[in-house]
Amino acid sequence: MKIISIINQKGGVGKTTTALNLSTALRKKNKKILLVDLDPQCNLSNTVNATAKNNIYDVLTGKISLSEAIEADFISSSPYMANLNNKTQFTIIKSKTDYDYIILDTPPSLDIITLNALSISDNIIITTTADAYSLQGINQLITTILAIKQKRNPNIKIKGILLTRFIARTVISKNVITVLEGLTKQLGTKVFNTKIRECIALREAQMLNKDIFSYARYSNGAFDYEKLAGEVLDEKQ
Ligand SMILES: Nc1ncnc2c1ncn2[C@@H]1O[C@H](COP(=O)(O)OP(=O)(O)OP(=O)(O)O)[C@@H](O)[C@H]1O
Ligand SMILES: [Mg+2]
After folding, report:
1. Distance between Cα 75 and ligand 2 center (Å)
2. Ligand nearest to the CA of 17
């Protein structure tokens, strides 16, 4: 079992879209996936299971067991996640060893939740859009990840940086790729070959609370997330 966190402290860069559609794509490849929403905004929970009875907050505060919180291989978040104190340990999430991957969707901040997610993760996927402010944020994020690696979690590995909402052939996207490739080379990681293209069907699917494969399986979004799943499973890379 490996824990993959989808991280970026910047908002609106495709974390939740990636958590949902990468999980679905990996399940289509017969992997057993537990998807967990850690974001107090509960975006993913509203998409996957708005009527869930249990949530991760109750697990982390000791009210229920991890197994009790799982409904259809998913654990909901709660607005109360914003109230967690810094003594809360997330290590209990590691106990579900009967999954191939546990995928964590995280909030747009470098707060207690994200730091704890980093502390229990084997792999990190950083999602980003191709613009200047996003690049600035990535430097700060990587500094934080390296500090966590030193202090709390020596095994953490940045699986890669994933460009989302990508529009190829623009000068800015080419420049961003060049900058990111330089950065990732220094850090022993990579920019994923797969780029998630800007795709209206991904937004439409979200409006209907669906993953991209059930909404539009021949869309660019479905193609790109399926390709990403292949890249994530390819351990040689
Ligand atoms: N490839 C894409 N093409 C078009 N729209 C996209 C794409 N990826 C994400 N979006 C849209 O961009 C918006 C932000 O995406 P998403 O919620 O996944 O970002 P996030 O990083 O999880 O945001 P937050 O930080 O607030 O949790 C959503 O409306 C989503 O539908
Ligand atoms: Mg989100």
Report:
1. 15
2. 1
Q: Domain holding 148: CATH number? A: 3.40.50.300
Q: Total domain count for the chain?
A: 1
Structural domain range at position 190: 2-233
Q: What is the 3-state secondary structure (H, E, C) of the chain?
A: CEEEEEECCCCCCCHHHHHHHHHHHHHHCCCCEEEEECCCCCHHHHHHCCCCCCEHHHHHCCCCCHHHHCECCEEECCHHHHHCCCCCCCHHHHHCCCCCEEEEECCCCCCHHHHHHHHHCCEEEEEECCCHHHHHHHHHHHHHHHHHHHHCCCCCEEEEEEECCECCCCHHHHHHHHHHHHHHHHHCCCECCCCCECCHHHHHHHHCCCCHHHHCCCCHHHHHHHHHHHHHHCCCC
Pocket test residue of 5, 10, 16, 17 for ligand 1, highest count of atoms within 8 A of CB: 17
Tokens 């289509």 locate to 28
Answer for the pair 141, 110: CB distance below 8 angstroms, yes or no: yes
> For 31-35, 114-118, 153-157, 180-184, which range has the lowest pLDDT when averaged over its residues?
180-184
Residue 91 scores a pLDDT above 60: yes
Span 119-154, pLDDT tens digits: 999 999 999 999 888 888 898 899 999 999 999 999
